[in-house]
Amino acid sequence: MRLIPLLITFSLLSSAFAQRCQPELQQTAASLPADTPTGILSAELLSAAIHWVEPALPPLAWSVTVPVAPDEPGYDAVRYLTERRLLPDGWSARDLSAQAWEAMLSRFLGWYGLPPVDVAIDPLPQQLTMDLAAALEQVSGAVRPLALVAADSEDRSRIAFLGLVWNWTVYPRLIVQRPLPGQDLSHGVRPLLEDLSNCAVELEHYIFAPEATARNLFLAHADSRMYVIGSEPELTAWPLLVPEGQEEAYFGFSSPQVSELSAYAAAFDGSALGLRSLMAMMPRLRTNLPPTRIPGLLRTPNGN
Questions:
Q1: What is the rounded CA–CA span in Å between residue 304 and residue 299?
Q2: What is the DSSP string of 37-97?
Q3: Most exposed among 54, 69, 212, 216, judged by the fewest C-beta atoms under 10 Å?
Q4: Cβ proximity of 251 and 228 under 8 Å
Q5: Are 67 and 39 in contact, with CB atoms under 8 Å apart?
Q6: What are phi and psi of 146, to 5 degrees?
Q7: Are 116 and 94 in contact (CB under 8 A)?
Q8: Which one-letter DSSP state was computed for residue 155?
């Protein structure tokens, strides 16, 4: 007699733990034609989720063969996933198998060192949003974004630089974010963290620095070179080596190459933002992080 209540309780608990981004995923699904095949639906949902978790993520593979024609529905989402090695060989645009969907989610989770998942035998549209919401719940607890905020040297209420150090990821990078109209520092850093957060990623930790110090975290060494490697909205011209001496124009979105972007990803060679360089600058920084937490935020999933 107690079996049914226990099953109901378990179902309710499972549903409660799988709510992250589910309304947004359902909205994404509802925006597509009602006859969208499950394969295309899976690509649209997963690509949307990755944009929430991994803004301005560069491709991980080039010269790929996209299993959908450019004039077919879902092409952009399928190309996006193909370039990021998330579509298994068994994926079909028409009929999505449980094995293919499980492989897609497991590859995504693998970016963060998370274990693979099991999915339903028959991945119906509603099940896809539930499975992906559950995966996002795991990913949200694993990512370790760090906001880097700098005030203008003359007007400390104005944002001079807004970046995200994104290390616990498949592609470590700095995400340079254009401040939204009306965003400033008159109420401190906390409102910015809320604005930068979404259903999948909650920004909690920040470093606040003077403008010059924030940029010197990446460009303090004479051999440092800056590359633009990805962007929002996505462009295909990357990577681009930033000419020496023009880094400030890129950080401030005044260079024509980035002036129309809402965000872009940057990488640096010659030196990297590591624990030693960051700790050396700590007297000039303000943060809500205890020093013991900093090494974990600067690590990557492969342990580097």
A1: 6
A2: -HHHHHHHHHHHHHHHHSTTPPPS-SS---SS-TTSTTHHHHHHHHHTT---TT--SSS--
A3: 69
A4: no
A5: no
A6: -130, 120
A7: no
A8: -
Report the candidate in 93, 105, 91, 102 with the shortest Cα–Cα distance to residue 36. Answer: 93
Enter the tokens of residue 103: 């492989």
- Report the C-alpha gap between 266 and 250 in whole angstroms: 10
Q: 163 has which bridge partners? A: 148, 176
- Give the count of beta carbons closer than 10 Å to the beta carbon of residue 284: 13
Residue 199 DSSP class: S
Say how many C-beta atoms besides its own lie within 10 A of residue 244's C-beta: 11
CA atoms of 125 and 38, how far apart (whole Å): 7
Q: Which is it for strands 206-210 and 146-151: parallel, antiparallel or unpaired? A: parallel
Cβ atoms 161, 148 nearer than 8 A: yes
- Per-residue pLDDT tens digits of the chain, which is 304 residues long: 333 333 333 333 344 444 789 999 999 999 999 999 999 999 999 999 999 999 999 999 988 999 999 999 999 999 999 999 999 999 999 999 999 999 999 999 999 999 998 888 788 888 999 999 999 999 999 998 999 998 888 888 999 889 998 988 999 999 999 999 999 999 999 999 999 999 999 999 998 888 877 777 776 655 678 999 999 999 878 999 999 889 889 999 999 999 999 999 999 886 555 555 666 666 677 888 887 777 776 677 765 5
Nearest to 165 by CA among 285, 40, 16, 7: 285
Beta strands (DSSP E) in the chain are 146-151, 159-166, 173-177, 206-210, 225-232, 240-241, 263-269, 286-287
CA atoms within 13 A on the CB side of 78: 22
What is the pTM assigned to this prediction? Answer: 0.87
Q: Are 111 and 141 spatial neighbours (Cβ–Cβ below 8 Å)?
A: no
Type of residue found at 5 = P
Q: How far apart are CA 193 and CA 159, in angstroms?
A: 13
